[in-house]
UniProtKB/TrEMBL annotation:
It is found in: Secreted. GO terms for biological process: rejection of self pollen. It comes from the Eukaryota. It comes from Arabidopsis suecica (Swedish thale-cress). Keywords: Secreted, Self-incompatibility, Signal. Residues 1-25 form the signal peptide. This is Plant self-incompatibility S1. It holds the Pfam family Self-incomp_S1. GO terms for cellular component: extracellular region. Belongs to the plant self-incompatibility (S1) protein family.
Amino acid sequence: MISTKAYSLFLVSLALAFTSSLSFTAPVFTVKVTNNLALDSHPFTIRCTSSKLDTSSQVLFRGETYVLMFDTDQSTRWNCVIFSSSAKMTPFVLFDLDRDKSRCKPDGSCLWQINPDGFYLYVASIHKYQKQYKW
């Protein structure tokens, strides 16, 4: 027969073994911004920042995609600026966890298209792009 103390120690050990095998990582998101401007348009430059990180500027020609991968331990909000020689500087919120966790795809993909009339986000619940910002 097992003593109460030995049984309690067994349960604590079992609980510790179980919880140490679990992974408690923050959700990972992949945000993609695609230049979908007209064929004859100038490229644009994008630069994104969060409260903890700052990306370098990247020039996107038509059809090219900017990719930003992060977990929500790094940041829950990303602000970006897009500018080109033919358009004024346009700031926008690329990602906000509270706003976008239900709008992005279940796998954590958030898809943006920069079109001639504005910035569109693919909203997974309705399976289509919706205009979020205008130029």
